[in-house]
Amino acid sequence: xxxxxxxxxxxxxxxxxxxxxxxxxxxxxxxxxxxxxxxxxxxxxxxxxxxxxxxxxxxxxxxxxxxxxxxxxxxxxxxxxxxxxxxxxxxxxxxxxxxxxxxxxxxxxxxxxxxxxxxxxxxxxxxxxxxxxxxxxxxxxxxxxxxxxxxxxxxxxxxxxxxxxxxxxxxxxxxxxxxxxxxxxxxxxxxxxxxxxxxxxxxxxxxxxxxxxxxxxxxxxxxxxxxxxxxxxxxxxxxxxxxxxxxxxxxxxxxxxxxxxxxxxxxxxxxxxxxxxxxxxxxxxxxxxxxxxxxxxxxxxxxxxxxxxxxxxxxxxxxxxxxxxxxxxxxxxxxxxxxxxxxxxxxxxxxxxxxxxxxxxxxxxxxxxxxxxxxxxxxxxxxxxxxxxxxxxxxxxxxxxxxxxxxxxxxxxxxxxxxxxxxxxxxxxxxxxxxxxxxxxxxxxxxxxxxxxxxxxxxxxxxxxxxxxxxxxxxxxxxxxxxxxxxxxxxxxxxxxxxxxxxxxxxxxxxxxxxxxxxxxxxxxxxxxxxxxxxxxxxxxxxxxxxxxxxxxxxxxxxxxxxxxxxxxxxxxxxxxxxxxxxxxxxxxxxxxxxxxxxxxxxxxxxxxxxxxxxxxxxxxxxxxxxxxxxxxxxxxxxx
Length: 640
Hints:
Helices cover 45% and strands 17% of the residues. By secondary structure, the chain is of the alpha/beta class. The strands form five sheets. The chain has a six-stranded antiparallel sheet with strand order 8-7-6-11-10-9, sandwiched between helices. A five-stranded antiparallel sheet has the order 2-1-5-4-3, sandwiched between helices. It has a five-stranded parallel sheet with strand order 13-14-17-12-18.
């Protein structure tokens, strides 16, 4: 454009000085200098350039402007696309004229010598200025886009060999927020299985983690619609979920969000920027964020930590709840804690033995969280639930097309547990074929996905557990001897709860406190009779049975204290107390045998307290001792 393209200048004969001013405006990049030149041309002391961005803001100015800008008059001029001259005293006149720029700039002139006949000249100069502002805007946008593209390429080169997805995503989010001038940034990975969005990272959020349902909010709308959104006022948008703001105390004003796609056009998640520091997000910002989104999607799909990342975040809360909670005051539990402390910092394979429900997975979790692998994944596999056909795919993964239903690549548990711990529960139920494949991986520390040829090194600590008698299974050729020796470098045995009655009350109180918190009710306490009833129960389901009972009590108990009546339903079916008696004994001998065993059990349940045992049996303490003498029992025979 040249100055001669302005209609008013075409119809009139501008002065030479006005022509020179137009030429300087079209050649200059310095808005401050342009404003000074305009003020000089019109002989005014005050000249100002303002832009409408929500409220009116000053872009460049010469002179002193007192008070706020006349927003309503500026709005009227912009809306009517008309210039206005106003006579004022004692300072002279004022001209307000729109520039016609895309960003809606206004030129304001004020001075004692300003007259109404200068209105047409002012409007012409404003139009030239508006055209130059549009040129500068395009030029600056191009420069910014080049700078952002360079930054994206630099970031891609810098982290091309990065294997830690989390670290890479943090750098991309930080650079995107900085270059696009936003206050916060979040990269959401879509965990379809858990139906949630996992922000990793969520810059500006305490802890750097954020979990959202995948069907709520603007981010949920983006991943399901597969379309980007720009929202200038989020609180006016019904799709916006205000829950995060209410919880954090942070106020979201505007946002920009784009979907992430992999090479197969599958949606991986979304990239979100919050609160543009100056004005609103633009189409230019959208294009730049989409460039960054390509880098994010590439980073996610090119690293084997994608499913590990999702799993780590989705299970973080649950892992923290159960982390290292080995509760108990018995010598057996004290010894177990000490052994775990010594083993945690090693990579030795560990075999955990114990009846169902004794807490084998809790012990495995403690081994993981107290060791050097604590920041890496803990992945549990129930071997009893896997057929030999499924075992290899589940543990080692499979490639797309490896078999009929293999519609996509599947990452196995060994890869998901990379750097961390793989817990193989119920290892005794694994088939002999599965045992052979597992042994090979444990010895070579390399896996190959089903249908693949590429060997994948793995760095995983293996902890196994079973309620079966593996040594006996080895003798019966039901379990491989070489795998048994490989797994049982160190063996931990967790005794059943009935053999450690001193742990019953500590465990009961621990679980009851947790579940009362979950039930959002005041902590319940046990009556003395209820405590004795808990101690007398055999607990055939071990700690799991106790845990389930405390959960039911926390949600269903009516009073503020747990009474014996609240425990009535713990009388679960169990074997007859007469099963241990030999066949063919006389009635007197059977009666004495039963009474002896019953007294031993009562004293053991009361942790050796003879007074409590006597009270439970409905006897005076002296009568209990007399009965024991009649049965030929010594006190030392019954104390634990």
